[in-house]
Write the structure tokens for this entry.
Amino acid sequence: MDLLLIGEDGSFLRMLSIGLKSQGFAVRTVNDVAPLRAALEDSTPDVIIFDHVEPMDLFALNPRECGYSGPLVLLIEEGIPEQVLERLRDLQVLKKPFLLESLFSQIELVTSAS
């Protein structure tokens, strides 16, 4: 399964990528809008995992704004306003901190629903 990780925290994305790859997932990471657009033009991932760090990420790195309509898992801290999450449409939310097994469950949930 092809996953695309989006976020600005490179060390967190690397750690997450290692855990996902160890379970057989093909993983790519992006941390800016231009590489996100390029990654989506190159091939459509089965699932996007979007690590929310900064409030502006939800707008600047929003995969929905870049034309992605597939399964999306959003990793968040507490306190994200509902109206902000509504802009992303059709997603699963996983609150940090989380166990890697919980992320696997979210990936399975969004891929079985699509």
About this structure: The mean pLDDT is 85. The chain has one domain: 2-113.
